[in-house]
Each structure stands twice: as structure tokens, then as C-alpha cells.
Amino acid sequence: MKHSQTETTPTSHFAPAERASDRQVAEMGGRVLVDRVLGALIEALPDYILVLNRERQVVAANQRLLEAFGLTDMGAIMGKRPGEAFGCTFASDGPGGCGTDHHCSVCGAVRSILECQENNAPSRHECRITLNRSGGLSLDLEVLSNPAQVDGIPVTVCIIRDISDRKRRTILERVFFHDVINTVGGLHGIAALLAEGKGISPEKEAEYKEWMVHLSNRLIDEINHHRKLLAAEKGEFRPDLGMVDVQQLAREVQALYVNHDIAQGRRLVLGPLAELTIVSDLQILRRILGNLVKNALEATPEGGTVTIAARQEGDGVSFTVHNPGLIPPEVQLQIFQRSFSTKEGTGRGIGTYSVRLFGERYLKGTITFTSTEREGTTFTASFPRQIS
């Protein structure tokens, strides 16, 4: 499934499309098998190992890799390229398979392999990959490509380490503490004013207490959402289904963010809203739409306008969030990947990923976007009338 559409593409070079014949691949694989040193090495290492020919096709792999990706034997991946062997969702999109699609131009694995081959030196890059099986499972991999020779013929030995757990833990902790500390900070500030009690009128005191209740509810909501996110990644989340009024939801999200700090100097308006109710998870829908609105406001220059709209699509609904900005092409290619962020160190890197995770896997919708210089950026979140 495609999640992005764009009129521009990155300037990065694609990998060559040419492949060796099946006979050449089998012959090279046989040479690796009889090379006792290389064979013993790839089985001894604790990581996943691929041995590639000059055309980036698999000629050997260790048993650990086969088991990790549910592969029965080497025959299942012999002659394939790494993305094709793993089941990357974009592996078959390019004219020459893995490495030749525009998404591949920002792939860390492709960069690592090409740099190793071009410079005849080790090259290490991180790679984010979404699999077209296992419900769209996302992996973070560290790929170290090393030049080697078998009977004088150059090969590339890729040492692949799954760093998904480390990345996920780091990002979730960063996001959790970022969100919670912000809310707790506001709560503490109001509590301190009430504790001091000097010069506070009864009206102001009542207002502060109301804000404390509001912030306390927000804190509980943040904690519960991160708990749901953890469950969603494990495949254990269950939507809390109920009737959702589309117009009311859009108005709630606008009211939530229209006076938010990130909306300062920007307009957040409502476009046409379909009169429709659907059966879905209200809290998750509110979070999805809120994430899209926050991202749009952050991408909008002062004086710009973000528009929330909703139209009926068949029996279902499509929410749209539009802003006048253009997402850079290299960002468009990675925007739904879990650990990708344009704002390093600020608690981001999971917003759009969680939008797709909840919206597609659990609410059975589709999340897409368009971004052009002329039309700006529009995210569309489409959901069925009722989850089957």
C-alpha cells in the first residue's frame, strides 16, 4: 500500500538494476559453501549475515537470519536482493526490484552496500524497513557492509543487527517523558500558586482549581495513550468501539488546538464537515486527528492556515488536514517510519508512525498524503462506517 504521493523525487542515485543469472548466483553460492573460513565465520557471528554478489543478490546467509525471518532454507532467498529476501514493502516497486525504487534512495541498507562496493571499504548505516507481512511490522536495522573475496571474486558481507527494541524503547521513553513532563510542569506551576495563596481572588482560585483538574485528566490521558501504544506494537490493543459523531470530533480537535502554543500566529479553521456517525474508537480517532493537526501547525509559517475537513466516502468518512507547506521529498519517503524524525531530541519520531499503526492496523482505515509546492500538504485519514 502506498502512503505518500509527490510530484518531486530526491536527487539521490538509485542502485543498478542489472542482475546475475540464476546459474551465476548458484555458482557463487557454491564457492561460498566450500570456503570454510567464510562459511564458519558467517555461522559463528551472533548477528544476521548476508553474502551478496556485485549485483547485490544473496548468494549465502547464516541460519540465524533464516530463522529470524521465517525462511525455510537458502533456496527461498537465493538470488534475491536484501529487501526482497526480508519482505520490504517497497522491494518490488522499482523497475529492477530492491534498490531501484525512489524509496530506496533513502534506505540505509542500500547506502551501506553501495558505499562498500564503490569504496572497497566497510560502511555502516541504520535502516528502517516495513515488512509486507506480519501486519506491516517495522524494523530498525544496523547494517555493516564489508568487502571480501571468494576465489578472487568480490563479494559483500552484510552484518545486520536488529536494533528495533533499543530504538523503540528510546523513542517511547523520550516521547513519554516529553509529554508527561510538560503536563506535570503546568500542574506543578498552578499547585505552587495555590499553595502560596497570596493575592488570589476566589474567582481566580476557582479557575486555577479547574485547570488542575483539566491538567490531571490530560496527564491520565497521556499515560493511557502510551500504554495503548505499547499494546498496539505488541498486537495486543483492542479498540473501544462506540458511536462517533464526525462533526463533533472535528470541532473538539479544533477547540483543543486553536489556542495551543504551536498555533500562535496561525489559523486553525474548519472546512466542510459531513453529517455522519461511524462506529470506531473515539479516543484513538481524536489522537490520530490531533497528531495530524499538530504536525500541520508546526509545518505552517506564521500567518498560514490549517484546515480540518471531513467528507463522506461511500459508507465511511475521510478526514483531511491541509496546510500550505511542502514536505521535502526525502522526508516524504520516510514519514511513516517509526524512528524517523526531522526534530532530533525534541520528543518526536513516532507521531505519524502511530497514526498509521492505529489507523490502519486497528481501525481498518487508510492514511495517505499528498504534498506539492503548488497545492501544499494534505493528510487524509479514511475510515469505514463500521469496523468489521
TrEMBL record:
<feature type="compositionally biased region" description="Polar residues">
    <location>
        <begin position="1"/>
        <end position="12"/>
    </location>
</feature>
<keyword id="KW-0418">Kinase</keyword>
<keyword id="KW-0597">Phosphoprotein</keyword>
<feature type="domain" description="Histidine kinase">
    <location>
        <begin position="175"/>
        <end position="387"/>
    </location>
</feature>
<keyword id="KW-0808">Transferase</keyword>
<dbReference type="GO" id="GO:0000155">
    <property type="term" value="F:phosphorelay sensor kinase activity"/>
</dbReference>
<dbReference type="InterPro" id="IPR003594">
    <property type="entry name" value="HATPase_dom"/>
</dbReference>
<dbReference type="InterPro" id="IPR005467">
    <property type="entry name" value="His_kinase_dom"/>
</dbReference>
<dbReference type="Pfam" id="PF02518">
    <property type="entry name" value="HATPase_c"/>
</dbReference>
<dbReference type="InterPro" id="IPR036890">
    <property type="entry name" value="HATPase_C_sf"/>
</dbReference>
<protein>
    <submittedName>
        <fullName>Sensor histidine kinase</fullName>
    </submittedName>
</protein>
<feature type="region of interest" description="Disordered">
    <location>
        <begin position="1"/>
        <end position="22"/>
    </location>
</feature>
<dbReference type="InterPro" id="IPR035965">
    <property type="entry name" value="PAS-like_dom_sf"/>
</dbReference>
